[in-house]
Design a protein that fits this description.
Blueprint (H helix, E strand, L loop, with lengths): L3 H61 L4 E4 L5 E4 L1 H7 L9 H4 L4 H9 L6 E7 L6 E9 L7 E7 L1 H37 L1 H5 L1 H31 L10 E4 H18 L3 E6 L5 E4 L1 H18 L6 E8 L5 E7 L31 H11 L3 E7 L3 E8 L5
Parallel strand pairs: 7-9
Antiparallel strand pairs: 1-2, 1-5, 3-4, 4-5, 6-8, 9-10, 10-12, 11-12
Helix pairs in contact: 5-7, 7-10, 8-9, 9-10
Length: 396
């Protein structure tokens, strides 16, 4: 006869074994679940690191462009932009900024609006107002083959190139105008002498005509020489300079001799105050002679009335910098004209009474800057006008 204890034990075991097995399985599942959770966590961490690396590489790439770059959606909302672009638009960050809403009506906004619906690259040259002045950008907006139809915008600063083109255009126009007048006069007198035998036979008339032609031919030659010199100075670099040590006093005395007749005819007095002597400088003596000649001749031409006094001075300041100054007591320059007097072909005197090429002070400015210096002008009309050249200290 089977014992009830054995039967009961078998029954308990029959009921308990599935639970024991299930518990074991649940424990195994929990362990596996924890392992999977840890693996997912690790994968998420790796994904986050990868995303950080991608963003970092994108940032490096955008910064390496060296020009403003913006990636935006067709709506105008910015997806990403580099530091150059943020600086251009005056913002700390442009992400999620809507450019089409931010920008006022302008060439740039019109370009972006056109690019937002275009299927091919849109190009334009636009002006962007900034606190430091208007800048000119050559812009490319390229629709990208992405699901959200992103648009990449690159802006290349061509302000200096644009200014150079404007300067060259104005230079050609001004030079043509300056050359046309003397050339027309010379041709006019030549035609008179060739077509009118009676006038050609008149010795006084012939001499007068030849004298006028000579003066205008000299003016044309001076103008061409000044234009060539200025063109050479405006070439990149300063390779045209032949630097050597020279005494400024000797250069000043040579210039005085060249202007002696003009000064005497105007009853003008030129005084030199250069200390110490010798006043040794390192630079191109030829261009420094042009600087002094143009400044002194400019003073004489603008003040033809007798009694003009001009002083050329030079000294070394306490900080080691050099100061060269040309001062006169003539009619002076109105303050409204001073910002423009170093521009090519600019004349403060609009009457045409003062003759010259209009390039002298532009040559002076370029020559001084090529030697690392700067020049400024100040004037009290009717009392005093001075041009001051400052050269930084250069250790021997």
């Amino acid at each position: 006869m089977v014992s009830w204890d054995i039967v009961l034990g078998l029954m308990v075991m029959a009921f308990a074994l599935p639970f024991i097995f299930l518990g074991s399985k649940m424990k195994s599942i929990r362990c596996r679940s924890q392992e999977v959770h840890n693996e997912v966590k690790q994968l998420r961490s790796l994904l986050a690191e990868l995303q950080d690396h991608v963003r970092h590489d994108q940032s490096l790439f955008l910064e390496a462009l060296g020009v403003p770059f913006v990636l935006m959606r067709p709506s105008g909302r910015v997806v990403m932009a580099n530091r150059k672009a943020c600086e251009l638009f005056g913002m700390e960050s442009m992400t999620n900024t809507n450019l089409l809403r931010l920008l006022p009506e302008s060439d740039l906004r019109s370009l972006l609006k056109k690019a937002s619906t275009a299927s091919e690259q849109v190009r334009a040259t636009v002006s962007v107002p900034r606190t430091d002045g208007e800048r000119i950008y050559r812009t490319k907006a390229t629709p990208l083959a992405t699901r959200e139809r992103h648009i990449g915008i690159v802006l290349l600063d061509v302000t200096e190139e644009h200014r150079t083109q404007v300067i060259r255009r104005d230079f050609v126009a001004n030079a043509s105008h300056e050359l046309r007048t003397p050339l027309t006069l010379i041709l006019g007198y030549l035609e008179t002498l060739l077509d009118d035998p009676e006038a050609a036979g008149d010795a006084e008339m012939r001499q007068r005509s030849l004298g006028i032609m000579k003066r205008h031919a000299d003016r044309m030659a001076r103008l061409v020489a000044d234009m060539l010199m200025l063109s050479r100075m405006e070439s990149p670099g300063t390779s045209y300079l032949k630097k050597e040590h020279f005494d400024l006093m000797q250069v000043a005395e040579d210039v005085m001799l060249r202007l002696e007749q003009m000064a005497c005819s105007q009853q003008a007095r030129i005084r030199i105050q250069i200390e110490p002597r010798p006043f040794v400088m390192n630079g191109d003596a030829f261009y420094w002679s042009q600087v002094l000649f143009n400044l002194l001749e400019n003073a004489l031409k603008n003040n033809p009335a007798p009694g003009l006094e001009i002083e050329l001075s030079a000294h070394t300041a306490a900080d080691g910098s050099r100061r060269i100054q040309v001062t006169d007591n003539g009619v002076g320059i109105d303050s409204e004209f001073i910002p423009f007097i170093f521009n090519r072909f600019y004349r403060a005197d609009k009457s045409g009474r003062i003759k010259g090429t209009g390039l002298g002070l532009a040559i002076v400015k370029h020559a001084v800057e090529a030697h690392g210096g700067s020049i400024s002008a100040e004037s009290t009309p009717g009392q005093r006008t001075s041009f001051t050249i400052t050269l930084p200290h250069t250790p021997a």
